[in-house]
Specification:
This protein is about 0% helix and about 45% strand. The protein has no helices and 7 strands. A hairpin with a 2-residue loop joins strand 3 and strand 4.
């Protein structure tokens, strides 16, 4: 994690029927919600600043790598910069649930209320 970011690690809820943000998606990737709720506030994605994938360690009996998380660094309409991700599958013993999570917020940004 970048030292200029504040760790959050909390689930977010996509606003139903919000549609994708202005970001291309390959087949099989989750659709980044254009709007989401987090900490009792609603946010609209204004811009995708960066996107990347997190892969699971390669098992000896599996060919290739498996994408475990889809990461996005986004700027909201209010100017907040958040790093969010989508968990495709959970690891054995993990407390994380499948779905969307807020990983961090850029330091100096106003906390959600």
């Amino acid at each position: 994690m970048d030292p200029t970011e504040r760790l959050i690690s909390e689930p977010l809820a996509a606003v139903p029927e919000s549609g994708p943000a202005d970001h291309p998606h390959a087949m099989g990737e989750p659709v980044l919600p254009a709007r989401f709720r987090w900490r009792d506030a609603e946010f609209t994605v204004a811009e995708v600043l960066e996107a990347w994938k997190g892969y699971s360690p390669r098992a000896s009996n599996v060919r290739g790598r498996y994408v475990r998380r889809h990461w996005y660094r986004v700027r909201t309409e209010t100017g907040r910069v958040l790093t969010i991700y989508f968990v495709r599958t959970t690891q054995t013993g993990s407390r994380k649930e499948k779905g969307w999570w807020v990983y961090s917020e850029a330091a100096g940004e106003k906390p959600a209320r």
